[in-house]
């Protein structure tokens, strides 16, 4: 009988988990390194407010008058309005015309945008993006920034800017316009393009100083 009994100590040893744990320790860093992190940029945009009735004829007090800054972009340039008035064309721009005309007035921006759209639609992403960048270079971003910093100097507490665009204007151009109008740069005015695009934000401590950081998208009239 004693010989037929199995030794109870046989098979009662603990399971060796060391090889599995070693494998897990090796795999976890490899999995983390293989992850592609997606960076998502968020722009705070306020939708246009709908009017619930006819505007009041009563004029607000002088200290409550709003700037109502508006920048409209089309294939000819930027049209800037403030306090229900359109600012006249800058020196060197055709009259009548936008407040800030193209820096390269010999460029047919409409044709360039159509060409970029056609290439992107046909699958030529590289060619379409290249033509879109060339179209965006035709705009005078420096003059736009200089004008807005001048307006900001007179309306220091204003943060809202109304943005509108013609239907043929691509979304990338609108985003570029929001970027230019959001923060103050090291200087209030620029003339050289390389200095402008390489300039850093003006800071009050660790926080960049704001220009017009609250964009409101609106529909162009007509």
Structure, explained:
Mean pLDDT is 82; it is low at 49-56. Strands 1, 2, 3, 4, 5 and 8 form a 6-stranded mixed beta sheet that branches. Strand 2 (77-82) and strand 3 (85-86) form a beta hairpin. Helix 2 (109-122) packs antiparallel against helix 3. With 222 residues, this protein is an alpha/beta fold. It is built from 6 helices and 8 strands, in the order H-E-E-E-E-H-H-H-E-H-H-E-E-E. It is elongated.
Q: Could you give a short account of the major beta sheet?
A: 6 strands, mixed
Secondary-structure element series: HEEEEHHHEHHEEE
Overall SS class: alpha/beta
Low-confidence stretches: 49-56
Global outline: elongated
Q: What is the number of strand segments?
A: 8
Q: In short, what is this structure?
A:
The protein has six helices and eight strands. By secondary structure, the protein is α/β, with parallel strands linked by helices.
Question: Which features does this protein show?
Answer:
single chain; six-stranded mixed β-sheet; 222 residues; alpha/beta
Secondary structure topology:
Blueprint lengths: L17 H17 L35 E5 L2 E6 L2 E2 L13 E2 L7 H14 L2 H13 L3 H14 L5 E6 L5 H12 L10 H6 L4 E2 L2 E2 L5 E4 L5
Parallel strand pairs: 1-5, 5-8
Antiparallel strand pairs: 1-2, 2-3, 2-4, 6-7
Helix pairs in contact: 2-3
């Amino acid at each position: 009988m004693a010989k037929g009994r199995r030794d109870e100590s046989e098979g009662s040893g603990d399971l060796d988990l060391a090889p599995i744990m070693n494998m897990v320790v090796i795999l976890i860093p490899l999995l983390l390194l293989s992850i592609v992190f997606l960076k998502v940029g968020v722009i705070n945009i306020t939708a246009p407010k709908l009017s619930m009735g006819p505007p009041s004829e009563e004029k607000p007090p002088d200290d409550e008058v709003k700037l109502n800054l508006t920048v409209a972009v089309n294939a000819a340039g930027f049209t800037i309005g403030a306090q229900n008035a359109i600012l006249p064309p800058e020196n060197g721009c055709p009259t009548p015309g936008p407040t800030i005309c193209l820096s390269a007035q010999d460029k047919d921006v409409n044709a360039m945008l159509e060409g970029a759209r056609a290439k992107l639609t046909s699958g030529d992403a590289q060619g379409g993006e290249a033509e879109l960048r060339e179209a965006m270079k035709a705009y005078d971003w420096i003059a736009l920034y200089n004008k807005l910093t001048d307006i900001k100097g007179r309306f220091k507490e204003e943060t809202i800017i109304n943005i509108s665009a013609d239907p043929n204007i691509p979304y990338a151009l609108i985003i570029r316009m929001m970027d230019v109008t959001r923060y103050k740069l090291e200087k209030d005015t620029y003339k050289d393009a390389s200095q402008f695009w390489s300039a850093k934000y003006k800071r009050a401590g660790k926080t960049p100083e704001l220009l017009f950081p609250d964009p409101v998208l609106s529909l162009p009239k007509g």
